Amino acid sequence: MIQFKTRTLTIFESALFRTTSGLYTGNGALVLVDPTWLPDEVAAIRHYLDDLTGKQGLHLIFTHSDYDHIIGDGAFPEAKTVASRAFTESADKAEQVRLIREFDEKYYLDRHYPVGYPEIDFVIDEDEQFLAAGEARLSFWLAPGHNPDGILTLIEPDGILFAGDYLSDAEFPFVYHSFRAYRETLVKIDILVRSGRVRVLIPGHGSVCTATEEMQKRLSAAHAYLDTLEDCLLNNKPFPEQQLWSDYKYKAGQQEYHEKNIELFRREFGL
Fold this sequence. Notes:
alpha/beta, Metallo-beta-lactamase, Chain A, seven-stranded mixed sheet, five-stranded mixed sheet, 12 strands, globular
């Protein structure tokens, strides 16, 4: 379904995990971010794109390499692709493709496009690297933490920030890679928000955010979860799970990610 729409921005929301895909069509640019999930949903994005008149060259951005965010790649073979250097050098490529195939086989899904790990045309190596798309400027920041290869994408002059799997209102921080790196990425987002450059924030899962106060609230919520987890584990205290599941309602789908956060924190900090 379409979750959010303006004259230049359309955000599609999957029926699965509230996963978002974004299409930007302003300032002579055509930018697609993380087309996903189900075959019919990817096809709907493809048809939506095909119906646009005066189409420009398409840029396809991958916020990170988790399989749910790369699953639609093959439906857009004409696109110039963008991702981080770590994305292109990932040792996990075959595993992400395996997960796509396993998902489709489990649910009897057929995709009418090839499935594989994306080949990348424009590689992001550093913070504030940018790419011109029509009259728009696409600026990128490296965003490890959730996983090793994330990027933030800011589209200007519209002030649209694609945050990948950060600042969701539906999920607490899922830390697959590094708690230290996750904190550093939150700081980058905070600096961008405080600068006034961000007017629309799109998380990889959950609701689009257009109010600076809400962006700051989500940053505070992410830090609060990480602070509480750290305090409990370093001081051998029980985590207040009742409050966690009061704040986040999808316990059955998210319990394992909280438990994996605990395991990763213990490994990262030698507990």
